[in-house]
Amino acid sequence: MLKFYFHTTPNPMKVALLLEELGLDYEAVALDTYKGNQHSPQFKAINPNGKAPAIEDDGKRVFDSTAICLYLAEKHGALLGDPANRGELLSWLFWIASGLGPFSGQWVHFQTAGANEGGEYAKRRYRFEAHRHYRVLDEHLAGRAFMVGHDYTIADICAWGWVDRNVRVLGEGGIDAYPNVKRWYEAVNARPAVAKARDLPQRLAFKTDFDEETARSLFPHNFAETGS
Ligand SMILES: N[C@@H](CCC(=O)N[C@@H](CS)C(=O)NCC(=O)O)C(=O)O
Fold this sequence. Notes:
The chain is α+β, with helices and mostly antiparallel strands and 228 residues long. It has 10 helices and 4 strands.
């Protein structure tokens, strides 16, 4: 059975939603990043990058959320949309993987973990870029039901993983300033698979205390002598 290494964070949630949309049987494994499970040699044999998510399927490893989504959608011939829109699908998938996701994630990091560290220039840049990505998405979704063509695809699933954290990224009001994103997000949220994906974190146990073990696991740069 497919093994899914999961934590309750945006990139793994994309894969949780896809697995539920596909109706696949899978074994969810809690990868407790607060305890440093992601750095264990056993897990690094599955994801050498030491991050969630990863899967093992038919004896094969696949890591990195976008790769996993493409792999599963191709394997099951689903949620890829019209083949004529393949270029558009890949464009939005890579835009999420290299833009919306990292800028949102780093902006949250600067607001929370790095809040007392200064770095005003970095904060200004990441805040601006996080909002800019939401503006791009909002303009794209004007008059459209889905991100690519007329079909719900893995691009919607991957964007949902991040937009689901919009209040944490954008602050109070979240996507209220982005009405097309809001309409699209509410439509995705109404899908039965979203409710099932949201249930997954409830079925697994994760550490919630943020102590030194957690700080060392998640922010090793703060403990590295050379800063590299
Ligand atoms: N590009 C990777 C990013 C994975 C990633 O950053 N995962 C986070 C959770 S969303 C993680 O494992 N964080 C723990 C850590 O950085 O140690 C993907 O899309 O899967």
